[in-house]
């Protein structure tokens, strides 16, 4: 098996999926009937590229099950972040009842253990990274390869200045924006520290962005998450996202 996996990773993965499907039908299987040279050579490698192929894990109150990978052509912004190394360093975790007919209201201690300690897959450990609002309602969470909880926190810090948020719900919502499926526009923006730098970039015809102050009254922010955009840039984004 090792020789086959080293020869062609994609073909070996397809054999593994076949084995998984057969084991779903019957809990005993002669693996040599699938993982052999004859079956390996029959696998046709697809020319279709999947930009995001993500590991999938089902967690129940009694076990952790590794499932076939999910294939996606869109992904989300966190997965496309250059610092995180692509979809191979992510996995998506589904919390499931056991048996499936029950409601997901038991086994919370084990789920808490998984969220706190992470999941080991081979030689790698994956820790809870974040989830969008809709994913949380569906008990779906994104994990990322990390050596420790501190490592995960450092990765989250690259997604924004979130350490000033004291409310857990607000923190999860802000972080969750990175995990909503989105289409890349291919537009690169230059960040400017000052208004003078911003104006100079605009005059040079560069696409740029800068921070502006929030409108606050009595300790409350009325512009949280809001911003301004020029008509020209809005048109380019709409065109890049194929909405016009």
From TrEMBL:
One of its GO terms (biological process) is siRNA processing. Its EC number is 2.7.7.48. It holds the Pfam family RdRP. GO terms for cellular component: nuclear RNA-directed RNA polymerase complex. Keywords: Nucleotidyltransferase, RNA-binding, RNA-directed RNA polymerase, Transferase. The keyword RNA-binding applies. Residues 59-240 form the RDRP core domain. One of its GO terms (molecular function) is RNA-directed RNA polymerase activity. InterPro entries: RDRP (IPR007855), RDRP_core (IPR057596). The keyword Cell membrane does not apply. It catalyses: RNA(n) + a ribonucleoside 5'-triphosphate = RNA(n+1) + diphosphate. Belongs to the RdRP family. This is RNA-dependent RNA polymerase. It comes from Adineta ricciae (Rotifer).
């Amino acid at each position: 098996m090792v020789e086959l996996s080293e020869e062609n990773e994609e073909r070996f993965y397809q054999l593994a999926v076949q084995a998984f499907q057969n084991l779903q039908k019957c809990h005993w299987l002669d693996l040599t009937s699938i993982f052999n040279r004859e079956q390996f050579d029959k696998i046709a490698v697809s020319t279709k590229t999947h930009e995001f192929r993500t590991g999938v894990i089902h967690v129940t109150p009694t076990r952790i099950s590794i499932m076939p990978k999910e294939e996606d052509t869109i992904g989300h912004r966190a997965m496309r972040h250059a610092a995180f190394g692509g979809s191979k360093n992510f996995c998506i975790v589904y919390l499931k009842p056991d048996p499936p007919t029950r409601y997901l209201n038991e086994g919370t201690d084990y789920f808490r253990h998984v969220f706190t300690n992470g999941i080991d897959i081979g030689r790698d450990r994956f820790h809870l990274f974040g989830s969008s609002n809709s994913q949380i309602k569906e008990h779906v969470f994104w994990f990322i390869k990390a050596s420790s909880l501190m490592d995960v926190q450092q990765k989250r810090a690259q997604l924004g200045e979130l350490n000033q948020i004291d409310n857990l719900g607000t923190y999860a919502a802000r972080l969750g924006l990175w995990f909503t499926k989105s289409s890349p526009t291919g537009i690169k923006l230059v960040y400017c520290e000052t208004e003078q730098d911003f104006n100079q970039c605009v005059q040079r015809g560069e696409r740029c962005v800068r921070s502006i102050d929030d409108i606050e009254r009595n300790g409350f922010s009325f512009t949280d998450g809001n911003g301004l955009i020029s008509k020209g840039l809005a048109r380019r984004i709409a065109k890049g996202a194929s909405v016009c």
